[in-house]
Input
Amino acid sequence: MKDIDWSKLGFHYTETDYIVRCECHDGVWGKPYVTNDKYVSLHLSATCLQYGQEAFEGLKAFRGADGKVRVFRMEENARRMARSAEALCMSPVPEDLFCEAIILALDKNMDFLPPYETGATLYFRPLLIGTTPRLGVGPGRDFLFVVIPSPIGPYFPVGFHGTPFIVNRHVDRAAPFGTGQYKVGGNYAASFRATEAAHRQGLSCLFLDSVERKYIDECGAANFFGIKDGVYVTPQSTSILPSITNNSLMQLARDKGIQVEQRRVLLEELSDMTECGACGTAAVISPISRVIDPDNARIYEFGDEPGEVSKMLYYALKDIQYGRTEDKHGWCYVK
Ligand code: PLP
Ligand code: COI
Output
């Protein structure tokens, strides 16, 4: 195992020994291969650079209490990446190839898999880029798929404690029938203006729907959920990413007898919520301590500590990921 101070890791890139690559030409995928070369020689007219033909994913491997290694729901990431690829007219990475590449990246980088209970995990960043040189506006026919591993710590530096958010009505992250439901780099570039403005105030950004700016969309790079009258409420929107973590939390909530509502959620409903949070692979569950709505001079307060439902769901999810409880839904690839 590498000599890394695992518990000090944040959500930053740490180089590992190997990455995995695979190429596609005219719809035909090659075999994934391992390399230690983290650089790519790319034509400057490649469609990923010129026209943003790029999609990515994010998933984690955990070293469990029983010494086994678990990768969480990688088939779901594979399916989502295929949907993102189709949305940008790219050749989708076949599901079995995607999973083979993740397992290869895991096998080759076991020294970078953080020990149990350090709070760190091995994160995989699958990336698909268009490499055909093109000046005419249109999709290319050549693609490079890579899996970049990195050990990481918590996404929000405070860990499982409240993070403050601010609403931004002046920058839209995604349009209702645009690319918001796909994991493509352009969505993130489009959000930087809002997220950087929030960060300068020590806050994270809560995005509203881009039509009426009344409904909650999502929390930067995570979905939103709140608990209202004991019900798990989470936005239904065509401009947000269908989070695999949120999907898992909804299932866990139902398993615990908690009602789940996936529907449009008015920002004002925050005043009736007892707790709320941001959820995602990187964020896990990050409780929201307060939401500032500067345009209406309103602050919704939730406190710095996670609420009871958030705590229960957080540990239910982690127990599965770390092999401390039965994986009833068969979510983990176990090695
Ligand atoms: N929303 C956005 C915009 C994201 O980037 C992510 C991260 O992947 C999520 C939500 C959470 O999705 P998941 O739980 O699948 O990681
Ligand atoms: C994730 O949660 O895996 C993400 O990709 C979100 C963000 C860090 C881009």
